[in-house]
Amino acid sequence: MQGEKREQYTRLRAATAEAYDELEDAGLDLINTLPTTLAGILALCQYIRPLFGDTDQPDLPEYITYDDDTTAYPAEAFAYVIGKSLGKLMKAEGMV
What we know:
With 96 residues, this protein is mostly helical. The chain has helices spanning 3-31, 38-48, 74-92; strands at 64-65, 71-72.
């Protein structure tokens, strides 16, 4: 591949990489957004349930890498968010 086709290929690869990076950033924001109500936690649980089913699973990453270079498996990341949300709600209600 040479000339104009090579340049177009290079531009498309760069655009694809940029779009993937934006998608990854949005996904991390979503994973790290703590629900603030029991209804929000329930909605999150209902949303993620099919992500870990036996069939029709989306192409989840093997693991999630955070900005501080720590990693977590997707299920681990969601469990952390749910637990953190429940802890905050319980603390606000004076339960802990």
